[in-house]
Amino acid sequence: QVQLVESGGDLVQPGGSLRLSCAASGSILTIDHMGWYRQAPGKERELVATISSGGSTKYGDSVKGRFTISRDNAKNTVFLQMNSLKPEDTAVYYCNGDIRRPGRPYLNVWGRGTQVTVSS
């Protein structure tokens, strides 16, 4: 059994900051890519940021310069630091990871999501 659990979602004012965390648990050998995606009501899920096991990052155009993704491999955890938040950042944020279990191929896992609301 492997699962991802997000935390840190909250209600914040425009211009504020928030830090999301996603911790993987279960029988894990290694984790390759980890990432954050978000989905607002009535819209498709979109890429926010990804990070490889080696630390290479990729960001969606709407968050470049404002969000930073990082990871702690020893703790099997990925973070998303969100600064200069805008109302359009309001969404459910989901964590995703490619996880290798002992003796098994990679498994793609999604968390259940955490709500981020940016409102004045």
Structural class: mainly beta
Strand percentage, roughly?
A: over 45%
Q: Kindly state the mean pLDDT as a whole number?
A: 96
Oligomer: single chain
Biggest sheet character: 7 strands, mixed
**What is the number of strand segments?**
11
- Determine the fraction of residues in helical runs and give it as a percent range: under 10%
Distance between the termini: 41 Å
Q: Low-confidence stretches at least 5 residues in length (pLDDT < 50)?
A: none
- Run of helices and strands: EEEEEEEEEEE
Shape field:
elongated
Instruction: Specify the number of helices.
Output: 0
Radius of gyration: 14 Å
Write the layout of secondary structure elements.
Layout: E1 2-7, E2 11-12, E3 18-26, E4 30-39, E5 46-51, E6 57-59, E7 67-72, E8 77-82, E9 91-100, E10 106-110, E11 114-118
Task: Give a brief outline of the structure.
This protein is mostly beta strands. Helices cover 0% and strands 57% of the residues.
Describe this structure in words.
With 120 residues, the chain is mostly beta strands. Strands 2, 4, 5, 6, 9, 10 and 11 form a seven-stranded mixed beta sheet that branches. A four-stranded antiparallel beta sheet has the order 1-3-8-7, with no helix packed on it. 0% of the residues lie in helices and 57% in strands. The radius of gyration is 14 Å and the shape is elongated. It has strands at 2-7, 11-12, 18-26, 30-39, 46-51, 57-59, 67-72, 77-82, 91-100, 106-110, 114-118. It contains no helices and eleven strands.
